Give the backbone structure.
Amino acid sequence: MNNSNKTMAKNTIMLYFRMMITMVVSLYTSRVILQTLGVTDYGIYQAVGGIVGFMTFINGALATGSSRFLTFELGSGNFEKLKRTFSTTLTIHFVLAVVIAIVGETVGLWFLYNKLEIPFERFDSAIFCFHLSIVAAAISIIQVPYNATIISHEKMNIYAYVSIVEVLAKLGIVYVLKIGSFDKLKLYALLLLVINAALQLFYCIYCSKKFEEARFRFAFDKVLFKDIGKFSGWSLFAQGAIALNSQGILIVLNMFFSPVVVASRAISLQVNGVINQFVNNFRVAVNPQITKRFAQGDFDGSKNLLLESTKYSYYLIFVLSLPIFFTADKLLKLWLGVVPEYAVIFLQLIVVQNLFTIFDTSLYQALYAKGRIKENALISPTVGFIRFPLACLLFKFGFSPVSFSYVCLGSYFLLGCVIKPILLVKIANYHWRDFLRVYPNCLKISLLSLPLPIIFYVYIYDMINVEFISVIAQAFISLLSSTIVIWFCGLDRNSRNMVVGLIKKKVFKKAT
């Protein structure tokens, strides 16, 4: 258990190291790329990419199944079955990549020509980006089993090292876009494809050399394929709902509104992605241990780890979301220079939505570890599917593009705070009292953290003329309030003593 905890701590640190580098560079490159491409071209790229992203939702379902079975077999110690599992999943993903490419170059291309609102003078560039996006999607699909292998072996440091190369390459893209005389939208899509292909090739070579099961041998285990297909089949419905409400909504926005609105939504999603990286890195480090402990028969250990990690995941997302919510207007202006219409309200609503989403995604791991996702795959995606046609109706009747964000907010509250606890009680042998360790604590720290930031925002925030200083001040007050409340009300005495002990140990080590 101690070795597992040390591994999780080490992996979390490496993932956060990776995240800090990518976050800083991504924010800088996004600003320059938006200014270089322009809001319209940026929106076109997001809409075109949305078509390809929507078509690959099947890959998301298979990726979930592949990762689960690889991690489970590694935890159970059946190495021969682990090798068969890898080869079977790689074969499946290769076939899927071919199918997606064919569908994209037929149905997807027809949709692009006939349904999207793209300025005539930029249509040729949009077609070029679409073809490259299909190639990039095919490469990413084939790569899924390799990435799942790295995660199952908990070698998170590899992601940290590769991220350094990735962000340096993206800085290179910014430089080339500034000095290049080519069509900048075409050049941007081409350079992203080159970087993506190079990184995926590295992961493939690394896994093949480091992990024996990742050395591809043509194999197709029909029984295993049936098990993965059955497991992934239930994920397929869920992934379809996710695709509709992420890439799908970008497509619909481009059908009813200008590319500028698409760009606004994409910008809010990008900031949201940075926020989620903080929690996702933590969960990526923790989730394999939840599954492995379950596979080894340590059901109580798996449950306790899931509940505690869910609570701490909420703390992380809340600490980050609070300052961003209050400073969204000036923060986007400082970052982008020119803020597209609707970007601020999109961002504010999506960070509130995250507070409920974290329960939905974290608690799902209990069903994932048990391999019982049928009920979740029926109920949760149904709620998700309802959001999409409702948004289309709202847009058709002239409602604001922001109306979709309000629909998402309500649905994620239902999923995270009502549906997931019911499923865990009915399926995973949880008890209602187990959730008293999570929800009341999260609500308490949220309510107690709000008064001070609200007072500062109402009476002082707009009085500070220098935007950078006002953002820093509001963020500091929000962070200070939330961290103090979490320290005294969110952590128990043992957790506080552990943190103090670790700090003293580090300080003493440096001093000596």
